[in-house]
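in:
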């Protein structure tokens, strides 16, 4: 059965099915989503343990399991982050850093136009095949937050280890925070609330794209394909 690559709306406008996100990008995206959710939940309980138990800790090992999951998904997040950096150089144009970075005056004008539209939607907002300039900037900032979480988290992890390798990592990491481990703890825990705010805003934008376009971002990030109006390929 031949796949549908174009379809015409009742208005006479043409929708084109475009391949946007490659499989590695989609895998990385959902891996980071799962990691952030698990790290946020386990991190909250590590910082605010809400329970106590009279049983022997060696028998139930509840808190140890929480810590193990936190460390495990931290390693997975690190691997996904490194691979995403690599794919930003070898992936298609929608995934490349050269597309995401706001290096031109036009991109900054488009970002400002999107911000104004979101607060005061008076004109029709262009639909982009990949991420819009504002979304690209947002993801770049999110990657910096993830990087900060990785550095601060592994600094704390290394400080609790006693091998020469980890002690060296701890020394380098602590030097970035004025050799103040309490400050590292505070800033790392504060990231939880940054991610919470981002998730709320991200979900809002996912719903928003359903209203203004013909393919939801969830569908696109699962299949890799997106239906866009031929007349609205803003960056083509």
């Amino acid at each position: 059965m031949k796949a549908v690559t174009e379809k015409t709306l009742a208005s006479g406008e043409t929708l084109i099915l475009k391949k946007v996100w490659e499989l590695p990008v989609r895998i990385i995206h959902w891996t980071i989503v799962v990691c952030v959710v698990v790290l946020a939940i386990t991190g909250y309980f590590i910082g605010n343990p809400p329970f106590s138990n009279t049983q022997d800790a060696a028998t139930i090992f509840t808190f140890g399991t929480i810590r193990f999951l936190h460390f495990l998904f931290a390693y997975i997040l690190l691997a996904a982050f490194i691979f995403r950096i690599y794919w930003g150089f070898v992936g298609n144009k929608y995934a490349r850093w050269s597309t995401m970075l706001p290096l031109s005056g036009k991109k900054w004008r488009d970002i400002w136009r999107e911000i104004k539209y979101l607060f005061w939607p008076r004109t029709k907002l262009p639909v982009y095949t990949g991420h819009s300039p504002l979304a690209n900037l947002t993801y770049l900032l999110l990657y910096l937050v993830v990087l900060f979480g990785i550095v601060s988290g592994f600094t704390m992890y290394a400080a609790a280890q006693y091998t020469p390798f980890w002690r060296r990592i701890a020394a380098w990491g602590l030097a970035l925070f004025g050799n103040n481990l309490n400050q590292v703890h505070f800033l790392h825990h504060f990231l939880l609330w940054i991610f919470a705010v981002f998730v709320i805003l991200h979900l809002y934008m996912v719903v928003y794209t359903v209203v203004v376009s013909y393919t939801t971002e969830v569908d696109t990030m699962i299949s890799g394909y997106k239906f866009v109006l031929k007349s609205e390929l803003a960056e083509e």
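note: The beta strands are 6-8, 14-19, 225-229.
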